Amino acid sequence: MKQKIVIYNEQADKFVSVTVGQLLDKEWVIKDIPQLQELDLSYTVEQNVEKEIVKVLTTDTFSVIIADDRVKSLTYNEWESYRVGQAYAGIENLLSNQSEKIKVLFKQFTQDMQDKYAGQASWVKIYNNLIKNIKEG
Q1: Residues 71, 52: contact at Cβ < 8 Å?
Q2: Which of 6, 8, 27, 130 has the most other CB atoms within 10 Å of its CB?
């Protein structure tokens, strides 16, 4: 198991790094771990999020996402793919004023990055696609 994991509050779009030992040591509550207090998880009080976090931890856990109604464990590659998707969603509105070629460039690059973290693309493929799309643009 990793020494540290990322705990991410999707609603607030904030994350912190926590030592796994802090989570597995004993029964704890959010106020026991200063980093978790930074995440503003007050809305999860009734969910017993502390037990849910511990429940989803595996030897492959890189991060734990806390969303409105779920707590989910992600591996490193799943976390990176998730964040790439979030980044693209964040710029999608900005792209609305751009040419179709620019939109395609960003969309393809995002898809290539998600493929990379799914183990289906290499950096070489990503850069080759990027260069190809720039030349065609």
Answers
A1: yes
A2: 8
Interior CA angle at 14 toward 38 and 82, to 5°?
150
pTM equals 0.80
Q: 51 CB contacts (<8 Å, ≥6 apart)? A: none
The 3-state secondary structure of 20-53, one letter per residue: HHHHHCCCCCHHHCHHHHCCCCHHHHHHCHHHHH
CA dihedral 76, 109, 16, 10 (to 10 degrees): -100
